[in-house]
Amino acid sequence: QVQLVESGGGLVQPGGSLRLSCAASGDLGHMYRMGWYRQAPGKQRELVAGIPSIGVTKYADSVKGRFKISKDNARNTVYLQMNSLLPEDTAVYYCYVERSEVYSWGQGTQVTVSA
Known about the structure:
0% of the residues lie in helices and 56% in strands. By secondary structure, it is mainly β.
């Protein structure tokens, strides 16, 4: 079983920055992906960014150039640095671990971008 604990959400003005953290514990194994989805009111969940154990990262087109995902392997922690935030980035952000097409989810952290 995998447990994910998220932190770093909050209220920020447009153009501001936030850094989300997601610490994973449990039996992760060696082959897994970690990353972030988000869900805004009335919208479907969408992939924001993902990083595999080995390979290239993925970003939603809407966040490319503004967000950066990174991982600290020693701490089993994935980060999402969010810069130049826009009101449309407002959503609940969920960390995930994917192993063999099975997902584990964090509790979600609210990001609100508003003047």
